[in-house]
Structure formats: C-alpha cells, structure tokens
Amino acid sequence: MNIKIKRVGIIHYRPGKPDCMGIVNGTAVHDICGNCVGGTSTTIPCTIDCAGVANGTAYRDDCGNCVGGTTMQKPCNQDCAGVKNGVAYRDTCGNCVSGTTGKTPCVKDCQGVLGGTAYMDGCGICVGGTTGKSPCPMNEPCAGGYTAASGFQFVNSSIYCNGVNVSYTFGLKLPTQQQTILGQTTQVSTMTSGQLYQVATVSACCRPASAQYAFSTDPSGIQWVFVINTNGVVYCYYFSSDGAFPAGDVKYFSGSYSLK
Fold first, then answer.
1. What is the mean pLDDT of residues 76-105?
2. What's the rounded Cα separation, in Å, for the pair 77 and 79?
C-alpha cells in the first residue's frame, strides 16, 4: 500500500513591538525631551522655544526678536499708533497722542472739562464749550464790569476791553449829607479826609496786571486818589480841610491798564 504524506507548513507568530507605554503596536513615542507622549499617554509633548530651550518660555515679540525666557531680552511693543517701540500713548480722554500721531494730550478747559472747548475770551470770561456763554465783543463793555460798594453810587461809568487792555471811566457820586452851620446849609461829605474807602469791586474779567492809580485836584484844592488793586478792589480817598462838596457832585476818574 502506497502512503502519501502531505507536509503542512508551521506558522510562527511574532508579537508586535510595544510602544513607550508598553502597548503592543501602540503609537506612543518619546518626544525631544524624552517624555512618552501620544498614543494612550496623557503627557503633552514638550516644545522648543525660540532660544532652543525645551519647554522654554522665550518667544518672538512684535519686532520679531526672541525675548523672555533665558534670552534676558525685553520685548519691544507697539504703541497705540502701531509703531514698534513707539512712544504714542492714550491720554486721559482716551485719544492716542504724542509719538508719530502729531496730536497733543487733552487737557481741562477753563470749565474743568477734559478735552473741552471752553476758553477765556478777551474779557477774561470762560466761554464756549459747555458754559453756554458767548465771547464778549471787543471794545464793548466788559461783562460784569464792576459792582459798587454799599453806600456808594456811580454814574456814567463804563469798562471796555480789547482783549489786551482795559479802559475805564468811573463817575463816583460823592456821598454827602446836609449840614447847617451858622444858619447856612451846605452839603458835607460823609467821607473822612485821609481815610481809605472801598468804593467798588472790578469783576474778574477786568482786573489789572498791576495796581492802578489816578490823581486829581479840585479847584477848591481837594486832592483825590483813586486806586484799583490786582484783586479788582477799587479804593478812593481825598485830602481836604473842611470836606465840603457841592450838592450832587460827581468825581470822575479814567484811565487804562493791561489785563491781569
């Protein structure tokens, strides 16, 4: 009897190579820092910063320079105008100013408003902007002018400004009272010779840069002195032996000065 023998091949099983996590045929690998990452690993791969340091903190700034980390270099910055290492900045009004902008920082106007448009007119009054006031006309009575002190009156008086100088005319109506001496009734001054009297106050818009003086002498020999100080206080005094004035007499003083 013939016997046929059929050869059967033997299959040899070779298991796959485990990855760094020990997983056969896994995809985890060692990164450049030697950490097992990827695959079933939850470790995040390390990176190399611009200075070549693994997991370093150096980076490229706005100017393209490698700064921070181990570089010991400070980053350049763009200013609000977009200029690298520029000096433009945001002012208190939020505007980008200085540097290449050609703009100046906002400031408070005379009304105290940041970036406001109110300004001092030729009479020294804060106008425009949020004030609701219009500028005073040049060479016309300065708004406010003056205020007579208690007990004193002024007639035909005015103060004019041209933005630089002030011209004034004061007509001081002399305070008198009737007095009968030896049967003769006269008007006698209620002012005392040689005593300084505050007769008015000039408004802030008309105050002089330096104290102003005006002098005159009456035909009767009474000498008058008229003073406006830098605070706008107007004084008047006279020198007389008897202090007698004609009834309703008005004493005029005029002059000009530079605005404060």
1. 87
2. 6
Asked whether the predicted pLDDT for residue 254 surpasses 80, the reply is yes
Beta carbons of 199 and 150 less than 8 angstroms apart: no
| Cβ atoms of residues 230 and 216 within 8 Å | no
- For 206, the 3-state DSSP assignment is helix
User: And the tokens for 92?
Assistant: 């208190």
DSSP string for residues in 218-237: -TTS-EEEEEE-TT-EEEEE
Cα dist from 63 to 48, 72, 154, 194, whole Å: 20, 16, 74, 80
Q: Which two tokens stand for residue 154?
A: 């002024």
Helix (H) or strand (E) holding 249: none
What tokens appear for 209 in the block? 């840069």
Return the CA Rg of the chain.
47
Residues 92-138 have pLDDT tens digits of 888 899 999 998 888 888 988 888 888 877 666 788 889 887 776 55
Domain ranges for the chain, please list them.
141-258
Q: Give the residue among 219, 222, 256 at the shortest CA–CA distance from 237.
A: 222
> Are 180 and 133 spatial neighbours (Cβ–Cβ below 8 Å)?
no
Query: For the structural domain made of 141-258, what CATH number should be given?
Result: 2.60.40.1830
- The lowest-confidence range among 91-95, 145-149, 184-188, 204-208 is 184-188
pTM score: 0.45
